Amino acid sequence: MRTVLALVPRGRGLLAVLLGAAAVLTGTLLLATSGALITAASRQPESLLVLLPMITAVRLFAVSRATLRYAERVVAHDLTLRVVARLRVLVLERLVPLAPAALLGTRGGELLARVRSDVDELQGVVLRLAAPVAVAAVAGGVAVGLTATVSPPSALVLAVLLTVLGVAVPVLAARAGRGAAVTTARAEAATGAEVLDLVRGLADHLASDGGRTALATLDRALAAQQAAETRTARLTAATTLAREGVPVLGVVAALWFVGQDVTTGRTDPVLLAAAALGVLGAFEAVASLGPAWASAGRIRAAAARVTALSAQTPVVTAPEQPAPRPAGCGLVLDQVGFSYPEASSPVLAGMDLEVAPGEKVALVGPSGSGKSTVLALALRFWDPTSGRVLLGGVPADRLALDDVRAAAAWAPQAPQLLGGTLAGNLRLARPDATPAQLEAALHELGLGEVLQRVGLDGWIGEAGERLSAGERARVGLARVLLGPAPVLLLDEPTAHLDRAGADRVLQLLLTDPRAVLLVTHDEQRLDPAWRVVRLAGAPG
Amino acid sequence: MRRGWTGRVLALPGSRGLLPVCVLLALVVAAAVAVQWTLLARVVGRVVDQDVAPAALLPLLAGVVLAWLVRSGALAVRDRTAARASSRVRAGARRALAEKLLRLGPEAAAGERAGELASTATEGVARLDAVVGRFLPGAVNAVVVAGCLLVLVLVLDPLSGLLLLLTGPLLVVFLWLVGTHAGRAAERQWESLGMLGALLVDTLRVLPVLVAHRRGPSAARWLAGVGEAYRTATLKVLRTAFLSGFVLELGAALCTALVAVTVGIRLFEGGLELERALLVLLLAPEFFAPLRALGADQHARLEGRPAAERLFALLDQPEPPRGRRPVPPGVPHVRLVGVTVRAQDRVLLDAVDLDLPPRSRTALVGPSGAGKTTAARVLLGLTTPCTGAVLVDGVPLAELDPDAWRARVAYVPERPWLLPGSVADNVRLGRPDADHAAVGRALAAAQLLDVVRRLPRGVDTVLGEDGARLSGGERLRLALARAFVADAGLVVLDEPTSQLDAAGEAAVLAALDTLAEGRTVLTITHRQAPLELHQRVVRLAGGRVATETGVAAGEGLTVTGTVPAGGESRA
């Protein structure tokens, strides 16, 4: 929560609170002055001039109230959008050091729904929580003070009732609603994940069982969400009852105490209606606290999840004083052992591997023997459990993370393309590449036809879905080849290609001056120029 | 049109019955408000005019409290009823959307961006809450409560009543004028919100690659820029949208002030008594309160409008005609006759003829983008040909019941989709009522028993999102097990072994050979090993059939060069 509140700019926050409190107070004063005016008029003073100040005040309050309220809403919403924008960036920035290792275990759809809906939920932190609380404190305090000048007992009752409505009821409701808030948020996230799964896998669902399973799962998620929302609705109704009902006690108390003072002659009768109406108006100060606290549980749950996300320790950390970028660019694995967290047996044990500058090495071995893991270790997505990874002779964990990833370029097995254009994807590897260079990179991989079809700046669809799997793989490869890294780490780059395409890619890699570490299962297709390293699968 | 979409939202099954309940409760509220303020005005009048001590007015004060509580209770009941109706409506809309998507098929989801569809179903539907949960009860209150109180004030003091009668409708007109403008702007804002969501999702999805390319920080900067643009756009919308609130607030406050001043002057001149004047003053804000609330609710309703329109546009999309004829029993004879498929401006398949006799085994080869996967989708009925037809035992596929047809076809894509459930759940996708033994036999046939035994809870092990616990070859064999248990007549495989090493491929092919027994098989591949299992190799190029070759004959295989004979002898 504190992390989130720290994102609120101070000056704008204060301005929003002052405007809000002033709007509430002018409303209260409008009612009170009107009551006083009517009572005073009914007592028929000698001249209308006696009423004139009250008439002026009534008009002034009427105009300024609407203006103040408008200004407050604009300032508070601007504030909210600023906070949310900062929050999105904060979340992304904190996810960057965790990616990709710590993200592997989380359900993709849930993570996605979580970050989106949590960030959206946290929009309310200013508008629904922080601002109403501050406004209530300021406006409520001033209103109680004003009432005290007329009738201290009424002020006391008002103070108590404001505390009950503004603090006790919301806190109780929040405690009762905390469980429901968490359940609702979770149910909502689960529904989101199911919907996304259905949309993304529509073809697969239809092909496997006509979507029956997906619908049944969605139904369960929807029912859970409805049940959670029903509990929330009950609580909302209870707070409505308190919010609407409690003010009557303050009004009646004001009538009682001020009325006694009037009949005993201690107070001007003009103040009776003014006090009753003023007290009624003062409750507007806490009116938005009921809904505020109803959502407080959800907001706090969202803040907690976002904070927990950013509090995760990255599996790799950058050294405090990184070694200078090495001159050499060889890759060495020295007696490396590795097991994934929660895995029962290691993936790699005592592995030695050396890729000299310019050398072409192919990693082969059965599925699950740790081929992709070797690449992930070379990129320092993970640190080995034992042994060392050396880049240019320097242990990878003593280099700046950016230097590690500048030394080695990676094409994952499933090519991850950004939605957007070919140029945008290629420039990830080399932001300053000219169009001619981009086109050359595509032509080199036989993507001339694609280039003609979509163009460098044509829309390739979400995740590149307008391209075929083979084309996506080659674009991913072109991206890596375009980059300046002296070592290329390629995970099954030919899996999606036909024979001619695969041979072309392998030949291209051989003529490239850079070192290549290639994960493949197509051992028989390799030219003898490749040095083949076989992973047998870990012992056990 | 504006009434159209709100009306449709309110006609959804979940919100029926809400309207009469709201009207009834609004009448209760109006009556309670009238009683409450009448009694309070009387108390003040007695004290001020007749010097009666409050202690002598206890019954009146008790009456005030009681009426006040009745009013609060009615509002609470209304809130709860509306919230539950809204919850029902949203669940119903999501369900209807899911069913519609399934009927429309994957082409509908490909045309519209998947992220956008998902955000319509989640955040878009969530915005219907503003219509059902807030706008409807608010509008009813505005009509019923404001109407009743107006009549009361007209009776009590015609002059003040006239003032309200003039101001109220004026405010509603203002509300409508500002509202339509805000509505258009809200639509634009919604579009940018959808884009922002898609961008965040997209960025998170490719985060590993961004990190590997050292682009994490620049992605954050970029996102900050998008967020800033969104803030500016939204604020512009809100500045206008808040104007309606400003006008309402100003009108209500000015009118209350006007009532106070005119009533005050008439009191001064002696034309009115205090009790009645006070009651009129107390009723004026109560007349405006529901109208003001309506302003906020109207804003919320307009925010929901683009989402609702998108939802209804989707629900109204014409569905492809569904065939009703039963699928003929036995292993089908499938033929593609002159099938042409175009997508956007591209021809994916161009007059393709392909004959798949019962129990034949055909391999489909060709370069990337030749239309192999499209051909498989056409066979499954997931893609409808622009011209030409698929004939199943002579009957056009379009006339067959698509669900029944898909139940008879086992589809094994390159990267099969897995349920987040257990191993057994995934096998049972093929046939939901398969018993334990059948699941075991299918796993054995797919050579997965060893793998499953190593899992912590055997066949009941939960695989996690997208089968995270399995290797590429294992998930493929799991999909084969699914095909075994389904006992399908036609098996379509799309690149079954492209991601596997030699040993993994051998295991899959052995399983495939068993599976193929007595079924029609079509395998898309660019690998050599699977070809040995097939009798015939069809080569696609540029969406056309280039060559058709018998494997057994081994004559001039353009793809493989040297394929040993033997496909036939295995059968």
TrEMBL record, chain A:
One of its GO terms (cellular component) is plasma membrane. It is a multi-pass membrane protein. It is found in: Cell membrane. The chain crosses the membrane at residues 50-68, 125-148, 154-174, 241-258, 270-290. Keywords: ATP-binding, Membrane, Nucleotide-binding, Transmembrane, Transmembrane helix. Gene3D superfamilies: ABC transporter type 1, transmembrane domain, P-loop containing nucleotide triphosphate hydrolases. One of its GO terms (molecular function) is ATP hydrolysis activity. GO terms for biological process: cell redox homeostasis; glutathione transmembrane transport. Residues 14-298 form the ABC transmembrane type-1 domain. Residues 331-538 form the ABC transporter domain. NCBIfam families: CydC. This is Thiol reductant ABC exporter subunit CydC. The lineage of its organism: Bacteria, Bacillati, Actinomycetota, Actinomycetes, Propionibacteriales.
UniProtKB/TrEMBL annotation, chain B:
Gene3D superfamilies: ABC transporter type 1, transmembrane domain, P-loop containing nucleotide triphosphate hydrolases. Keywords: ATP-binding, Membrane, Nucleotide-binding, Transmembrane, Transmembrane helix. The chain crosses the membrane at residues 21-40, 52-70, 135-156, 162-179, 241-265. InterPro entries: AAA+_ATPase (IPR003593), ABC1_TM_dom (IPR011527), ABC1_TM_sf (IPR036640), ABC_transporter-like_ATP-bd (IPR003439), ABC_transptr_CydD (IPR014216), P-loop_NTPase (IPR027417), Type_1_exporter (IPR039421). GO terms for molecular function: ABC-type transporter activity; ATP binding; ATP hydrolysis activity. Pfam families: ABC_membrane, ABC_tran. Its main location: membrane. Signal peptide: none annotated. It is found in: Cell membrane. This is Thiol reductant ABC exporter subunit CydD.
